[in-house]
Amino acid sequence: MKAARLFAPGNIRLVDAPRPVPGPGEALVRVIAYAPYGTDVSTYLNKGGRYVASYPVGIGADFSGVVEETGDGVHSVRPGQRVSALALDHCGTCAHCIDGRTNLCLDPAYRTLTRQTCCEEYVLVPERKLAVLPGAVGFEDAAMLAGPVDALNAFRKLGLDAGDTVAIVGVGAMGLGALAMARALDITAIAIGGTGKRGELARKVGAEEVFGLSAHGEDVSQAVLERHPAGFAAVMETTASDWGTALAFAVAGLGGRIALTGGGPLGVSNWDIVDRELTIFGVRAGSGQAEVLDLIARKRLSLGETVSRRFAIDQVADAFALLAGPDARDIGRVIIRIGDEA
Ligand SMILES: [Zn+2]
Fold first, then answer.
1. pLDDT (tens digit per residue) in 21-37
2. What pTM does this model have?
3. Cα separation of 146 and 151, whole Å?
């Protein structure tokens, strides 16, 4: 089978790999669509040397496909079913898993991130990670669930209901997914970020207002606070960058709530937090995949508008060169079509 492998930072190409065989509890999934997001680009470049320990290595996490074959003991999916997979694995039997909080599985074996790969024609996935797609959900939408799933988790923690307002910091893959999710839940979203045409996309997926940047890393907090002097009661940071973290804290209002999805040191003092009575939430992916799929099926949530380019698996090097290059600022999501739908 065709499989994309990284051989060095910025060096990705297809190899001919053996088609895997599902073991007990596993399904072999024929991949149809793969949507790279920020973490994949960081992996491609091995940013800071933190993403890849040894080469060659596969890539990709957010995908959809069709079950080709199942191993022993698999009961919840069967060959021919259309599926997508959660990024995080979980035990399925601990108190948190039973409670539906699979992203906070208590089993230490699942606390470290085992990276899924999917930029290949067939992948093995533990049965418990798979969600069967409702008939009305297309393969491309189902390959872009990470952003909306994270956003759903963040919005719940931020206590947001229909009619509330949230500031979304970052308009990359996760930011656009969060904006689309806000629209689906009738939450007003203000987008902050983007140096190129991403601002237009942010508006297209429902941002009421967009504060773009004239240069990467620009501090636009003053411009935001001029328009919103009291700051925001709820902020979701989607970039996991120092820039985004600083901005999220700068635009949060008194008593504000901030959802973080990653990043390094906070760069604020305890007094900064205490004086403004800020509440900070960590968002470790999420477990709301079924709810997100239901919103897509009911046409409340649409992710298709965020797609700017499509590539075939044979063009994987071109796709990643685009995503890691200067033109990425002008595009939304990229879909790599791995297999045919039929
Ligand atoms: Zn568990």
1. 999 999 999 999 999 98
2. 0.92
3. 8
